[in-house]
């Protein structure tokens, strides 16, 4: 009973919601890029939200199911097919033993997630199953998945449980993915140090995602931004979503595999509610920023948590 | 002292903007104090040169501190109370760690360049480097990478203009008045002077990093 990777895809890794509590040792949290997608599909399957999933980029992996498995896909839409039959994202799907999951084309987003009901059998490193590619540890042997790798689900089914398939996710919960989203930000510690013209440039221009972007960070290309006066900063902690100003006047947004500390000016932070919109972008997509206040960012995060609670309750009710 | 949000799930307490043992002791003491006296919703605290960042679970904080308008305000209040306690807590003696180094006298790394830049011999650079005790101010950049200081002015050398694409694991480098040990093979721009066999990062160990913020380090020749 296993999932076998028949084709590895360009970058398929095991991730969960990340490795907290070790930043002070320089160990970054890592974890999935799109937390909303992963929390949602894990809830749909009745899993713990933090259950490890496959994060796949395009082209994605081709996977053979060695036993009956219930899975769900979320995040990017890569034209998934199970033995040639299209598979919907955001709902539980039954895969019979010996069926094959493949992905045909990139319709929207850049990272798709596969969760299996009950999760995978994996060893955890520092309380997390996230792959740390730089440290070659965590996840599956600390590396991306390759042809022939086998993943063991914890559960198998003689026949599929009936009720799970009634579950649907409310459209209001789904992130409005776009290749040119407007992402809300709050001001960072050095925002006020920007020249007045640069404050406007941060808020009013469109940025291109450069091809030097990866899970560590997105390099943004736009009209150069500058501080009113030069500033030397000491390194201090940074986070997923921190927007830093580089010496060349361009911006970088730290993503899931960001380093724990940085010394560049922190101009702004993408609010956690909108991080998934950014996390689904890739090179040559565009993004615009909209400044909101920190209180509003918190309200939006709480609103989302309430929506997830409703989904959780709905799923539990359905399974009874 | 300044307290500001680092996004919607963290805040940073900045004690100053200088590399000084005094500010760093405050940062580490606050981080330790918070870990020992966690408020509901604390995720982790991260000391840096002169600041401490506190990561929190927004939802848990809001549920536990409903009387505050925002999680940021609630955590700020908790942190201020903890800082007030801190004023009376004594400093703990640092742990002294000796690290054996093979200095790179012949390789194409940067010991020769540093000597040339400062009009010294390679042996003089090594002696000046070894003569100091360095404070581990913080870990960051890579798992287990230590930011230490201060390197003697006579051998302080800025980062390379173009970083190397691969610095071997265990390399010891200088960047201005900082020194540090590459815990993993990585791209990097520090001026490399030698290498240690000591594992700075052991993923499977209970404590995965050899050094911790607040430790003191002496380098000895192998």
> Which structural class matches the secondary elements of chain A?
alpha+beta
The Rg value of chain A, from CA coordinates, equals: 20 Å
- Total E-strand runs of chain A: 20
Element order of chain B: H for helix, E for strand: EEHEEHHEHHEEEEEEEE
What gap, in angstroms, lies between the N and C termini of chain B?
Answer: 43 Å
Helix content of chain B: 25-40%
User: Helix share of residues of chain A?
Assistant: 10-25%
Order of helices and strands of chain A: EEHEEEEEEEEEEHEEEEEEEHEH
Q: Strand portion of chain A, in percent? A: 25-35%
Poorly predicted regions of chain A = none
| Mean of pLDDT of chain A | 94
Got a strand count of chain B?
Answer: 13
What is the mean pLDDT of chain B? 94
Poorly predicted segments of chain B:
none
Q: What Rg of chain B is obtained from the alpha carbons, in whole angstroms?
A: 20 Å
Strand content of chain B: 25-35%
Number of H/I helices of chain A: 4
Intertermini distance of chain A: 27 Å
Strand order of the largest sheet of chain B: 5-12-9-10-7-6-13
- Order the strands across the largest sheet of chain A as they lie in space: 12-19-16-17-14-13-20
């Amino acid at each position: 009973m296993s999932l076998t990777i028949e084709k590895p895809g360009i970058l398929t890794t095991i991730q969960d919601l990340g490795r907290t509590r070790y930043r002070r040792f320089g160990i970054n949290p890592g974890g999935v890029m799109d937390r909303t997608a992963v929390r949602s599909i894990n809830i749909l399957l009745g899993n713990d939200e933090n259950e490890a999933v496959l994060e796949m980029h395009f082209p994605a992996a081709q996977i053979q199911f060695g036993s009956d498995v219930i899975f769900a896909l979320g995040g990017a839409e890569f034209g998934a097919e199970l033995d040639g039959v299209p598979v919907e994202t955001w709902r539980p799907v039954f895969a019979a033993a010996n069926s094959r999951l493949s992905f045909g084309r990139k319709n929207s987003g850049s990272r798709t997630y596969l969760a299996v009901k009950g999760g995978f059998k994996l060893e955890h490193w520092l309380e997390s199953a996230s792959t740390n590619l730089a440290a070659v540890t965590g996840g599956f042997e600390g590396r991306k998945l390759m042809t022939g790798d086998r993943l063991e689900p914890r559960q198998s089914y003689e026949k599929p449980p009936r009720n799970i398939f009634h579950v649907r996710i409310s459209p209001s919960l789904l992130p409005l993915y776009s290749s040119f989203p407007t992402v809300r930000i709050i001001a960072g510690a050095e925002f006020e140090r920007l020249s007045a013209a640069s404050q406007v440039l941060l808020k009013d221009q469109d940025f291109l995602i450069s091809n030097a972007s990866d899970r560590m960070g997105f390099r943004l290309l736009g009209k150069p931004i500058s501080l009113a006066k030069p500033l030397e900063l000491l390194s201090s902690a940074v986070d997923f979503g921190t927007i830093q100003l580089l010496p060349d006047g361009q911006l970088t947004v730290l993503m899931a595999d960001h380093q724990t500390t940085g010394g560049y000016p922190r101009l702004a932070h993408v609010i956690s509610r909108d991080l998934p919109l950014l996390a689904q972008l890739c090179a040559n997509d565009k993004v615009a920023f909209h400044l909101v206040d920190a209180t509003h960012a918190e309200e939006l995060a709480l609103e989302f948590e309430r929506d997830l609670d409703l989904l959780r309750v709905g799923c539990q009710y359905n399974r009874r | 002292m300044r307290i500001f949000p680092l996004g919607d799930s963290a805040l940073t307490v900045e004690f100053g903007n200088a590399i000084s043992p005094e500010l760093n002791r405050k940062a580490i003491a606050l981080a330790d104090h918070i870990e020992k006296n966690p408020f509901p919703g604390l995720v982790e605290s991260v000391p840096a040169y002169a600041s401490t960042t506190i990561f929190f679970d927004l939802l848990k904080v809001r549920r536990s501190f409903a009387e505050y308008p925002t999680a940021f305000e609630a955590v700020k209040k908790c942190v201020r109370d903890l800082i007030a306690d801190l004023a009376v807590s004594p400093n703990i003696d640092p742990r002294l760690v000796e690290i054996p180094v093979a200095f790179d006298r012949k390789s194409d790394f940067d010991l020769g360049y540093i000597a040339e830049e400062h009009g010294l011999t390679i042996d003089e650079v090594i002696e000046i480097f070894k003569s100091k005790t360095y404070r581990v101010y913080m870990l960051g950049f890579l798992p287990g990478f230590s930011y230490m200081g201060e390197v003697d002015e006579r051998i302080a050398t800025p980062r390379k203009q173009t970083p190397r694409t691969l610095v071997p694991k265990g390399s010891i480098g200088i960047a201005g008045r900082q020194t540090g040990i590459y815990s993993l093979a990585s791209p990097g721009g520090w001026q490399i002077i030698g290498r240690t066999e000591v594992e700075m990062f052991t993923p499977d160990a209970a404590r995965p990093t050899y050094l911790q913020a607040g430790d003191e380090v002496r380098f000895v020749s192998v």
